[in-house]
Amino acid sequence: MNQKHKQSKLRTILVPLDASPQSLAALETAAQLAGAIGAQLTGLYVEDAELLALCDYPFAREVMLYPAGSRRLESAGLERDFRIQAEKIRKTMSMLAERSQFSWKFSVRRGRVIAEILEHTASADLTVIGRLGSSLKNVPIGSTVQSLVERGRGQTLILQEKMRTTTPMLTVYKGSELSRISLEVAVEIARAAIGKMEILIPAESESAYHKLSREALSATEIESGKQDMQIRFRRLRGDVAPALVALLWAEYRQAVVLPVDVIDGDPDAVLRLIKKISNPVLLVR
User: Number of folded domains in the chain?
Assistant: First the structure.
């Protein structure tokens, strides 16, 4: 990634963090973005109050994925683990900030994990999160991501692995206000990476396709030369969700900036789409 935007649409980035590899991938991606566009990065680590409450029950055991194993839940051990994990994350953030040159802060809260994350999304322009976190490996997405899709605010970037910045950004434009915002976000990220993007246009006719393509060019100021970008258009035919999934499976592995209104803004439809693909998805709402 290269130069920073002076007027970024993504001034603040939130990353909810835990001990999972996908959480680390989300942090590394968010750090790259923050360094490239000049955003402030906030790391959020939530000490799970519901897990602590289980320590009062003698039969409660913790099954751990990272590292693998199980043990009886004890409050003293859990408190120690919270401190160790938080300090490890803080040091990682400090190292990444020094490497990518961005401002950052790290917050430790205690409470219900999903409730704390949802509260913090309200003050962030973008939330970056791994799609599984500490969830079991045989589920397509974790409960936190489901809650963010259903109840979260602002833009949310959902990752299965670290986002690659060497491939063109991908977005969908249908002429709506959310499509315009998605274009602006996609252009900003693409310019900070390799300066290339592809715009998918849902259109039943050739004339509608060309009309929307011209709108997209005008909206991003690419046509007038104000944006240093390479751009490619492609037409989507038929129902958008299945056409998009088929295209992503067949040809694309890069991140897609998705205005939720292209699939009617239905959270269930958004979740079904995310479950079917492995691409990073940046939801614009």
Answer: 2
DSSP string, 69-115: EEEE--HHHHHHHHHHHHHHHHHHHHHHHHHHT--EEEEEEEE-HHH
Strand bridging mode 169-172 / 256-259: parallel
Give Cα separations from 18 to 47, 87, 216, 230, 233 (angstroms). 9, 11, 38, 37, 38
**C-alpha dist (Å) from residue 176 to 72, 83, 201:** 53, 46, 12
pTM of the model: 0.88
Residue 3 clears pLDDT 60, i.e. is over it: no
Residue that finishes a domain, picked among 139, 159, 179: 159
Residues 191 and 83 in one domain: no
Whether residue 154 is found in the same domain as residue 179: no
118/282 Cα distance (integer angstroms): 17
pLDDT at site 230: 86
Give the CB-side neighbour count of residue 282, counting CA atoms within 13 A. Answer: 32
> Are residues 153 and 253 located together in one domain of the fold?
no
Round to whole Å and give the CA distance between 48 and 111: 6
Range of the domain at 125: 12-159
Which pLDDT tens digit goes with each residue over 41-66? 999 999 999 988 888 777 666 666 55
Q: Whose CA is closest to 16, among 103, 142, 138?
A: 142
* H/E stretch holding 231: strand 230-236
* CB hemisphere CA count around 162 (13 angstroms): 12
Q: What share of the chain is helix, strand, coil (3-state, %, to 5)?
A: 45, 25, 30
**What secondary structure letter does DSSP report for 137?**
T
Provide the β-strand partners of residue 16.
44
For position 54, which CATH number holds?
Answer: 3.40.50.620
My answer on whether 250 and 268 are in the same domain is yes
